[in-house]
Amino acid sequence: MFTELSFISLLVPSLLPIFVGCCIAYWIADRLLGRTGLYRHVWHPALFRVSLFVSLFSGIGLLLGR
């Protein structure tokens, strides 16, 4: 179960650090996939990028939420 975290006397949702971590992981994965040329073979690159981020965030959120 997710709870709030106390950060400098502010209550922050516990999904916020997971979101920030997923943003960093997504940025690294996006750069690597862009350099390898994968986006030339994808039908809709923007949709692929959104689905990549949603998959990362939901997967990590479900794993850490147990």
Q: Quote the average pLDDT.
A: 89
What is the straight-line distance between the termini? 7 Å
Strand order of the largest sheet: 1-2
Uncertain ranges: none
Number of helices: 2
Question: Given the helix and strand composition, which structural class is it?
Answer: alpha+beta
Number of strands: 2
Characterise the protein shown here.
The protein is of the alpha+beta class and 66 residues long. The chain has one domain (4-64). The chain is built from two helices and two strands. Helix 1 packs antiparallel against helix 2. The longest helix has 22 residues, at 15-36. The protein is elongated. The mean pLDDT is 89. Pfam families: DUF1656 (PF07869).
How would you concisely characterize the structure shown here?
The chain has about 70 residues and is an alpha+beta fold. It contains two helices and two strands, in the order ββαα.
What are the SSEs and their pairings?
Blueprint (H helix, E strand, L loop, with lengths): L3 E4 L2 E4 L1 H22 L8 H20 L2
Helix pairs in contact: 1-2
